[in-house]
TrEMBL record:
Short name of one Pfam family: ABC_tran
This protein's UniProt keywords: ATP-binding, Cell membrane, Membrane, Nucleotide-binding, Sulfate transport, Translocase, Transport
Protein name: TOBE-like domain-containing protein
Annotated signal sequence range: none
Membrane-spanning segments: none
Domain ABC transporter: 3-233
InterPro entries membership: AAA+_ATPase (IPR003593), ABC_SmlMolc_Importer (IPR050093), ABC_transporter-like_ATP-bd (IPR003439), ABC_transporter-like_CS (IPR017871), Mo/tungstate-bd_C_term_dom (IPR008995), P-loop_NTPase (IPR027417), Sulph_transpt1 (IPR005666), TOBE-like (IPR024765)
Origin: domain of life: Bacteria
Length: 311
């Protein structure tokens, strides 16, 4: 089920939240809307889902013009950062809810809910109440509930935003695997570039109401269309007046062709990597090396090295 949003403009009073935005999400993909806070990601997601109306523009879901179709009839599943579970219902009933109000046969509901609880690894918690789950388990329940009614598209707004770093990391791996299994067209909002790079097939970078660039993760990382995208997707430093990735700078212990001499100002170890701040003709670029590279170069403050910028 593809999603095509065309010429979307949305204002709140005189504030322009989205300006003439075009988005094309292919069927079965996992697409991240990535960008800084306030850029318009959630607004775009809400417009796709029908929770918000665009002032101008249209939304087509699987070829059908959905612009005027209310949210309940768009057949989309939503998961938000702070998921509103039914507190007085068990995990099982929370997941079954959408099917029960659609008056599906009991046996069918049971089979579907069991299958979903297996899928989100919550089968053993079916009888618990939401308050007895961890944050990560609750978000998995939310995913199961959203998937229960077989939505044509799944819209996730910072689904792991409220969880700590370790659980976030676990859930991203899990979401990737889950998506490989169910293949439902999914759009998720995140401001975390690592999350987008690890999980998404396609990343759409949104800033100040506009799309900066859309493409596959590697494409955006290797060929950013603007300094903004380059900065947003990973660490950068300036060498010879040009924005480059610190790990793309080559460092040598002796003069080689195309390299210029610099002096090591500071060396910092961060886990498995080493960052060295250099002094080079009044500039202070920094480079990122492996521990092995740093040891081979005997990197230490005051040492002279030769650096070559990436092509
Ligand atoms: N209902 C509203 N009324 C007024 N302004 C709004 C409304 N909803 C959103 N905005 C404004 O529109 C802009 C875009 O908001 P949006 O939530 O889409 O951004 P975002 O990129 O998702 O950011 P975040 O990650 O912080 O949620 C923000 O400046 C926000 O304050």
């Amino acid at each position: 089920m593809s999603i095509v949003a065309t010429g979307i403009t949305k204002r709140f009073g005189s504030f322009v939240a989205l300006e003439d935005v075009d988005l094309d999400v292919r069927s079965g993909g996992l697409t991240a809307l990535l960008g800084p806070s306030g850029g318009g990601k959630s607004t775009l997601l809400r417009i796709i889902g029908g929770l918000e109306d665009a002032d101008v523009g249209s939304v087509r879901i699987n070829g059908v013009d959905s612009t005027r179709i209310p949210a309940q009839r768009r057949n989309v599943g939503f998961v938000f950062q702070h998921y509103a579970a039914f507190k007085h219902m068990s995990v099982y009933r929370n997941v079954a809810f959408g099917l029960e109000i659609r008056k599906r046969p009991k046996a069918e509901i049971r089979a579907r809910v069991d299958e979903l609880l297996d899928l989100v690894h919550l089968a053993q918690f079916a009888d618990r109440m939401p308050a007895q789950l961890s944050g990560g388990q609750r978000q998995r329940m939310a995913l199961a509930r959203a998937l229960a009614v077989e939505p044509s598209v799944l819209l996730l707004d910072e689904p792991f935003g409220a969880l700590d770093a370790t659980v976030r990391k676990e859930l991203r791996d899990w979401l990737r695997r889950l998506h490989d299994q169910v293949r439902v067209t999914t759009v998720f909002v995140t401001h975390d570039q690592q999350e987008a790079l690890e999980v998404a097939d396609e990343i759409v970078v949104i800033n100040a109401g506009r799309i900066e660039q859309a493409g596959q993760p590697d494409e955006l990382y290797d060929k950013p269309a603007s300094d903004f995208v380059m900065r947003f997707l990973g660490p950068v430093t300036t060498l010879h007046g040009r924005l480059v990735r610190p790990h793309d700078i080559e460092v040598f212990g002796a003069a080689v062709e195309g390299a210029v001499q610099a002096q090591v100002a500071r060396v910092q170890r961060v886990g498995f990597e080493v960052r060295a701040e250099l002094e080079l003709a009044g500039q202070t670029p920094w480079v990122q090396l492996t521990r092995g590279q740093a040891e081979a170069l005997e990197l230490a403050p005051g040492r002279g090295v030769w650096v070559r910028s990436p092509r």
